[in-house]
Write the structure tokens for this entry.
Amino acid sequence: MDVMHAASGYSPHTPVPIEVDCVMGSYDPVALDRIACELVGIDPDGVDYFRVAQEAGLGTTDRESIQVIGDDLACCATKMWVPYLEDIRSRWPEYEVHCEGACSSCQALLTLNMETLKAIGAYEENQDLVIVAGGKNTLSPHTPDEKIMLHGNCTRKHLKEHPNAFFLQGCPPGEGSLYMSVLRKEAMTGKPEQTPWIRERMEADAPTWRSYVEKEAEKFYGSAKQ
């Protein structure tokens, strides 16, 4: 595993590389990933697929069963900024966010899109929307369809009760489709007639978004040094 320049931030979409300067290897890929989490400060208990991998016999995540040789892990450890792995359900209180069962890809895109709304100054004017990602959520039947954004194929089931909700298909959906759908009040799914507007909008917003991410990274790594 190459951990020379780890991609923190909204990787792989908007990474902020940090220098860890390590190369790791193991006969057990699950154990390797488990130690990599420890190396960059990610709580292994928050990585859902570790449990599934161990149950399937693909490897171990039991720290007591893993021997680490080579450089001292504590001396090499670097806390990495990964803003989409922790519990994000209450991060945007102005919106109603449901993300039970969302995979890391949809969590990353959900976070990226919600923070993009902040970056471009469109967050407050669109509050009160209901954002859904993942397949383990329950929605009120009384929620107006025009307030619901369904992000990803796992949310398709909600169309039975909310047939006119905005459904963004894909596993996961396109990178900026959620925030663009919020702006346009239309499911931006990459249809041919939507493509020119999507490309133009992404190009226009890219510098603002990149600047926003870099400032947030500076806040995190600045506070970590204090």
Observations:
- The mean pLDDT is 92.
